[in-house]
């Protein structure tokens, strides 16, 4: 049996064109402080929302652009979700 | 600011958008198809399988020309427990060209090319930031500093849509109870290996849907599609289930790959991609307004998906809705009225076609699935218990009759009344 792949290994297989200048998702961590369960930390398929020292750390670079965080977030205003600028972001070669 | 005003701008070069642009271009209308990915399909993901009836009407010669993966001749529906898989396996020569497996990064560019060849302008790598409104009416799109004007904007931007809200067609954010999250791993294997493992020859393909342990008993399910030279393995779990249970879809995906019924099928394969996408799962009950002044919404953005558990469809609904949106725009141009009333032909056509007739017929399917939790845990376990006893021979001196064993399995899991009511609800909903 093959071992489970880490999320880093899986994201490493994908083609990404990261927009270094501009984050397409902005997280207002002050609002996140008021969120009890923080479902983004488990629901994001790329596991990009992590609790570090009690605060949400989010990295947009490996985003699969699915929108799960946007739908599951219980706190209006905590996640400002836009698509990356044209040509940037994930580029599925199979899809 | 652009001076000229096109007949239509279509946002998103997926099946809905390209079908709309192709239909408009064929009718001689001036249409711009805008796609944020570098190529059409590069932002899209499907399970996936395409039921071909709508494509047949859109591009009758598709079978020779389209980059399809495999012609589906084998259907499997599987209940999963942690250690078992119980399947209904239907392999048949009766499926001529009912459905094909597809990969969107291969299929979508071809469909967008058909639109371009028919005369549509296609702009890739362009993200639409906002709609341009004039007296509350949509008159174009804004991309960065640029504005492009059109009589109608057809929004086909997919499940995770932002523009309908900006146009006031959606008043609230999408509800977790209406959406599923799909994750998928694409695994390369030689063609011959795929054919041997699934008992296929030539262009034949297999599709397998799973319920049970794949989502750890939560609402959702797994899928496995055979493509030409790779497998699409993944699962969908409702966002609402993840809101209530701290379950990671990223981990469910890896656990699914380890399942004793899956591991041998993917053994030796090379994982080449990991993807995720939202799936609108609310049925007709979640449909937003799809018509406004100068705007129409088609495909996943309009929530046009039908999941019955044994068939999962979105791309055929997308193409048909794109075609109907285009037809409504053609009529609106002839009448010179692009306001909501002038575009009313869109919803009329959706209602007259399979799109809303089927979604209406199966209005209760999403509710049945979410209100029958036993489907995802109890019933797979029950089946495993009964079949486990049925197929186990011990030679004991105190043999137990099968019916006695079945009753023992049922005890504590579900009552006969539960079975009867779930079956009745299921028959009515599905």
Which terms would index this structure?
heterodimer; A: 95 residues; alpha+beta; two-stranded antiparallel sheet; 19% helix; B: alpha/beta; eight-stranded mixed beta sheet
Describe this protein's structure:
The complex is a heterodimer of chains A (95) and B (430). Chain A has 95 residues and is α+β, with helices and mostly antiparallel strands. Chain A has helices spanning 7-11, 29-32, 40-43, 68-72; strands at residues 15-17, 25-27, 49-52, 55-58, 79-81, 89-91. Chain A starts with 6 loop residues before the first helix and ends with a strand. In chain A, a hairpin with a 2-residue loop joins strand 3 (49-52) and strand 4. With 430 residues, chain B is α/β, with parallel strands linked by helices. Helices cover 34% and strands 27% of the residues of chain B. Chain B has 16 helices and 19 strands. Chain B has helices spanning 15-26, 53-58, 62-65, 104-117, 163-166, 191-198, 239-244, 249-258, 263-266, 315-335, 345-352, 354-361, 365-370, 378-390, 402-410, 416-429; strands spanning 5-11, 31-35, 49-51, 71-80, 85-91, 99-101, 121-124, 130-134, 137-143, 146-155, 179-188, 204-212, 220-226, 230-238, 270-280, 291-292, 295-297, 306-307, 312-313. The model of chain B has no long low-confidence stretch (mean pLDDT 95). At the A-B interface, helix 1, helix 4 and strand 6 of A face helix 4, strand 11, helix 7, helix 8 and strand 15 of B.
